[in-house]
User: Fold this.
Amino acid sequence: MMARMESVNATQLKNRLGEVLKRAALGPVAIERHGRIVACLVPPAAVKARAGKTPTVRPRWGRRDEQRVVELCARGDYRLSRWLRAGDPGTLAGVAAMLASQPGFDRTRMLALAERLHPGISAPAGFSHWLARTPVQAARFLPMLEARMRERKLPAAVPSRRP
Assistant:
């Protein structure tokens, strides 16, 4: 059975800060406002233990999102407005930066688009940060894009006429 975390409301925290800080040094204390937990005070040891662990928050990336972006990229559309409508700008900026190094894409235009979507993404540190948190799987995305681009280049099938 888990021990219930101690909690105080915001007014108690304001009026008795010293007392609450003493309790927080021993264990986590939840701060409530209007009956909902809005923050937690934790002992310094808990913060030190988590110092090297950064939470990975990934934007949602479903198959529909993936297909929409594959189609956008396959069309070779560099318009910012279209990219902004396609999904999360941070995620798409990384996709644009990734495509800047792929054959068939204008490197200068893709990097400019990436920077407009998310400033700093084309720098090595920015792209590295994107790689660490992105839901985009390059090993899956790039072959899908290549296949879609090949499909777009094929001429439409002409029905044959048989006498």
User: Anything to note?
Assistant: The chain has a mean pLDDT of 84. The longest strand covers residues 36-41. The chain is about 55% helix and 10% strand.
